[in-house]
Task: structure prediction
Amino acid sequence: MIGLGAVPLIADAIDEPFYTVLFSRMLILSIGAVSLNLILGYGGMVSFGHAVYLGIGSYVVGIGTLHAVEDGVTWMGDGFIHMAVAVCASAIAALFIGAISLRTRGVYFIMITLAFAQMFYFIAVGNESYGGDDGLSLYMRSDFSGLLDLSNDNTLYYLNFGFLIITLYLSHRLIKSRFGMLIRGAKSNEQRMRSIGFPVFRYRLVAFILSGAICGLAGVLSANQTDFVSPSVMHWTRSGDLIIMIVLGGMGTLFGPVIGAVAFLFLEEFLSEFTEYWQIFFGPLLVLVVIFGQGGIDGILVRLDNWWSKSSLSKQKQ
Amino acid sequence: MNWILLLEQTLNGLQLGILLFLLAAGLTLIFGIMDLINLAHGSLYMMGAYFAATFTQWTNSFFLGVLLTLPACMLFGIIVESIALRKLYTRSHLDQVLATFGLILFFNELVRLIWGPIGLDIPLPDILNGSVELFFGIRYPAFRLVIIFAGITVALLLYLLVSRTKIGMLIRAGASNRQMVSALGVNINLLYTIVFGLGSALAGLAGLMAAPIMTVEIGMGEGILIVTFVVIVIGGVGSIRGAFVAALLVGFIDTVGRSFLPDILGLFVSNDVADTAAPAISSMLIYVLMALILAIRPQGLFPPKGV
Result:
């Protein structure tokens, strides 16, 4: 984590600002993945539509700055308002999706969240006044009146970094709290939780909304990072990518999603430099990871650690 | 309202519904029996279309192409099943989603590598290319009628296969109690492979029938896969009858909604608003339908028995 904090300095030092942008994207997707991990990793709710909230957050910035630049409505370019609106809008969308899909389990839940995500995707595609299929280019970034200047990529990087730290801290506190215990308990045995007398559905719904709201914030950051908003932000494969990051990193662990996001973007960058058809390697790799690597990168690290301490113990015995 | 247009759109809806049913039947069978959620089902549909395009080109005959495509799809499905999917049956649904998502990425790139990034067209033979006069002088494209009849025939055959034959009995038994079937000495792995091959052939059939009316392109299976999920969720996961009813319902609502919603909205709000809002709303219709049905019946219209 400390290493991540020094990235812009190193990138500036070796004169490769490209790395700042790459790592910035890692941080943003990490926030998204950490938020999804709250419900997927800890709560066992496999939401296949989490990119919706990335999209909502992005569109709040896109639409807001469009009106700020073209119609001169300055408050619509304000970063604080973007964040507030994005969080509220994502929470409302999550309430709607969650209230219906959480009534179901397992495969139903996966398919329904995927279907609703597709619905939001089509709303964005069909909305011609805000770019439709082609999307919107941002002519300005969110304006934090004098406090922060986001047009500087390094400032944006540290904003992303700060939000990731806050998200991780929040998620850590949440999981250790009574609320978090309940969500985790409902994952391993829902019936028991219910018979103790907890309204599991309501707790799950709150977790679902919270997770969506955090991801909406990541959407605001993401729009500022790419200076571009289009329906592809919430394409269903994006939701798949988020799940991959979590499983790759190790689900149900605090830092797993961050490791996963970093590894995912590195792989993408590395493989696509190697060949244009990088997904032909990435696809089977994913299948292999699922079949053979349980617990993701985090799990492998833990196993390595165990193996290390075991072998050093046996050496001591000798 | 224009009745001829309504009839035409109803037939179009029926035709879309039939395509959806072919996909949904395979997917729901695979889920019901092997407890496998297969995202790559859309890839099998895509392969059906690409195989059909290639074989038609090779043989210079659409009919020969079709005859070659079906077994090719079945074989392709069986290969995929035995290499990658067989290991996933006992895994969690999350693992299955991820692995089959990986397969989609792989197949999309594979198709891009072999056939190139540009979409293909399949020329139809003259007999199918014209239109047929129905009644009252209404003309309708012949090929779309063929799709409807072929689909209904396949649906009937599938019904007979599942409810009247020995293999159908095993399929139903496998869906309700896997361990018992295997304990009674049935080769469950062979049964799985057969069912997967059957599902692949159905998806391939849908792909090859869709190919001449939509373009054959990379990723063509993904959009329709999600709609197929909607169909399965509405119909009840694992139920073929539910898949049939829901597929027709979704096909009809989607098609008719898209063509008539601007007029219907125009009755309530100004035409300008109706014209801009209609495309967005009409693409939402089937999801709203899904939400409504789930709010009333979380298990879908025809939940399978004993689950």
